[in-house]
């Protein structure tokens, strides 16, 4: 019996180690899903929205480091994919998107559901090709798999529905295509140039990003030799924060004062595997060395004195013997001392003062204390990411996922599905914003349909909270940010998820313990303070002016109660504890 294109497609994916595919079926995908059904070797993870399927696939790829797959039908199905695929591509995780298409002979005719998927996916992929004849399949699919795993991005294969039914060509298959770790060593002359700057500097600070993954020990050893505090960007947090006596916290809009100060006071900044985008947080007078696997990223955020192309593990190991020993430790000592003070102040804000609504910092702190030591956390953009960044402690086994580069709402819940699909025995906790959860709330049903024991903690402040903070900083009266929310616990219960609502801080710990203990999925809907301020580590004159204007305009618009709530939630407890 001959093999058709869909069957060969499925067999190739199995050979590449694919275990599940996230998506929604449709008529243009029928041959493919039928081939999956007959083969039985790959699990179909049915979702309610293609965007959620793409987020889930991206999370699976980030957790495993291996290829993950999403599939959807033509036209609107393809369009729904795009935002989630943008996130995966910008996060640089290997994802294959199978985008089925209208019948081959109808392309260009304005046919029902016709789009131009190659154009649509061009900007959110590293590879995108159309299979218009069965003879193309083996090499187009293999090229797509290689592009996804080697370039660490999204590869899209567009297949008209009728092409899936065509007889597959005979071709000797390549060896299974799997992700591999490559090592890139900077040139010796560049390493020496970097060492010369570091050896003459008196106050070195390290800024570590996602590129330090797998290089924890090498970076810590380099920091010890340099007597340098280590500041991390958000995506570097899971990889460098733990078991690190040189850690002084995070910088950036979500960070806190000690990280900003350690960079501001240095005379040499060593950037390791980071594309930290916020130029205003870089030191103005320090010499800067940047090491990155991608040469295109060198110097694109701040001018650099020495740029080195290489992976952090190899580069840090090679740089270490070039660094002189016996360095002064005052910069490190001062930075660590300031960090401990800042950390203590942040922890004080996460205490339970018994007031309603509940402080979101307290929620995040309890989640950290009660979650498993190897938990995977996902966080929605906005204030859930702030509290995750500040209060979730990394252990070397924990992971923190989010739309941290693309910055999309609604990622936490579907990313939690993707992480849980990899290993249902591993605890997965989503820190969801009320706005983010509501945006893709239909995929709560996907949690129960796919039997995934995801835990969701909702920060319910009835607002687009981070947008409100940005309005305050710009001197704008809050407008169009109110959210009229349902009882999310009741919604969860209606789809077969254990739902718990918490309004009193005295009930929170028991509620979280119960949610984490139930064998299946659980959602805890926590009513949190809307007027909680997340102060950035450095406030510009424009932000201070904007906040003053916001206060004045708020009072003048007859909404002075908001200002009183803000003072009660923030200023009073900071002064009087």
Brief overview:
InterPro entries: DHS-like_NAD/FAD-binding_dom, POXB-like, Pyruvate_dehydrogenase, THDP-binding, Thiamin_PyroP_enz_cen_dom, Thiamin_PyroP_enz_TPP-bd_dom, TPP-bd_CS, TPP_enzyme_TPP-bd. The protein is α/β, with parallel strands linked by helices. Helix content is 41%, strand content 15%.
| Number of E-type strands | 18
CATH superfamily of the largest domain, called what?
Thiamin diphosphate (ThDP)-binding fold, Pyr/PP domains
Cα distance spanning the termini: 76 Å
Number of helices: 22
Question: Mind telling me the CATH class of the largest domain?
Answer: Alpha Beta
Organism: Microbacterium protaetiae
Binding site for Mg(2+): 434, 461
Site (Moves into active site upon enzyme activation, plays a role in electron transfer): 466
Enzyme class: oxidoreductase
Mind explaining what this structure looks like?
It is a single chain. It contains 22 helices and 18 strands. The protein has a six-stranded parallel beta sheet with strand order 2-1-3-4-6-5, sandwiched between helices. A six-stranded parallel beta sheet has the order 9-8-7-10-11-12. The chain has a six-stranded parallel beta sheet with strand order 14-13-15-16-18-17, sandwiched between helices. The protein has 577 residues and is of the alpha/beta class. The chain folds into three domains: 5-165, Thiamin diphosphate (ThDP)-binding fold, Pyr/PP domains (Rossmann fold, 3-Layer(aba) Sandwich); 188-341, TPP-binding domain (Rossmann fold); 349-576, Rossmann fold (3-Layer(aba) Sandwich), CATH 3.40.50.970. The N and C termini lie far apart (76 Å). Residues 380-526 form the Thiamine pyrophosphate enzyme TPP-binding domain.
């Amino acid at each position: 019996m001959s093999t058709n294109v869909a069957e060969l497609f499925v067999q190739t994916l199995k050979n590449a180690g694919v275990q599940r595919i996230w998506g929604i079926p449709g008529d243009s995908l029928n041959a493919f899903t039928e081939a999956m059904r007959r083969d039985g070797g790959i699990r179909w993870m049915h979702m309610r929205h293609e965007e959620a399927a793409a987020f889930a696939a991206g999370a699976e790829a980030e957790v495993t480091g291996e290829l993950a797959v999403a599939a959807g039908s033509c036209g609107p199905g393809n369009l729904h994919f795009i935002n989630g695929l943008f996130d995966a591509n910008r996060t640089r995780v290997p994802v294959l998107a199978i985008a089925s298409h209208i019948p081959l002979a109808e392309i260009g005719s304005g046919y029902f559901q016709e789009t131009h998927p190659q154009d649509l996916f061009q900007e959110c992929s590293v590879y995108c090709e159309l299979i218009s004849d069965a003879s193309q399949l083996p090499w187009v699919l293999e090229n797509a798999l290689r592009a996804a795993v080697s370039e660490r991005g999204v590869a899209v294969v567009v297949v008209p529905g009728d092409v899936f039914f065509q007889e597959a060509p005979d071709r000797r298959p390549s060896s299974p295509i799997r992700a591999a770790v490559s090592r890139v060593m900077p040139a010796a002359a560049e390493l020496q140039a970097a060492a010369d700057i570091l050896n003459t500097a008196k106050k070195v600070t390290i800024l570590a990003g996602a590129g330090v993954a797998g290089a924890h020990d090498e970076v810590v050893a380099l920091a010890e030799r340099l007597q340098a505090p280590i500041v991390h960007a958000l995506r570097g947090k899971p990889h460098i924060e733990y078991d690190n006596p040189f850690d002084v916290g995070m910088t950036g809009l979500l960070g806190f004062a000690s990280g900003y100060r350690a960079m501001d006071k240095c005379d040499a900044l060593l950037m390791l595997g980071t594309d930290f985008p916020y130029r205003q947080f870089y030191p103005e007078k320090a010499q800067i060395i940047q090491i990155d696997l991608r040469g295109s990223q060198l110097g694109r955020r701040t001018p650099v004195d020495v740029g080195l192309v290489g992976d952090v593990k190899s580069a840090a190991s090679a740089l270490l013997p070039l660094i002189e020993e016996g360095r002064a430790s005052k910069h490190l000592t001062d930075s660590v001392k300031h960090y401990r003070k800042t950390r203590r102040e942040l922890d004080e804000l996460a205490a339970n003062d018994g007031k309603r609504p509940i402080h979101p910092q307290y929620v995040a702190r309890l989640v950290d204390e009660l979650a498993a030591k190897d938990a995977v956390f996902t966080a929605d953009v906005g204030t859930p990411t702030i509290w995750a960044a500040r209060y979730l402690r990394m252990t070397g086994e924990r992971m923190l996922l989010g739309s941290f580069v693309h910055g999309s709402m609604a990622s936490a819940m579907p990313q939690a599905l993707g992480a849980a699909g990899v290993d249902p025995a591993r605890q997965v906790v989503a820190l969801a914003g009320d706005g983010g959860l509501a945006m893709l709330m239909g995929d709560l049903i996907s949690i129960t349909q796919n039997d995934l024991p995801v835990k969701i903690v909702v920060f319910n402040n009835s607002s687009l909270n981070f947008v409100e903070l940005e309005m305050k900083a710009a001197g704008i009266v809050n407008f169009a940010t109110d959210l009229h929310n349902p009882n999310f616990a009741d919604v969860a219960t209606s789809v077969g998820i254990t739902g718990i609502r918490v309004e009193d801080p005295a009930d929170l710990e028991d509620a979280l313990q119960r949610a984490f203990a139930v064998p299946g999925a659980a959602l805890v809907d926590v009513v949190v303070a809307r007027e909680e301020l997340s102060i950035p580590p450095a406030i510009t004159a424009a932000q201070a002016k904007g906040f003053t204007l916001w206060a004045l305009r708020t009072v003048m618009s007859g909404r002075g109660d908001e200002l009183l709530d803000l003072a009660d939630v923030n200023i009073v407890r900071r002064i009087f504890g």
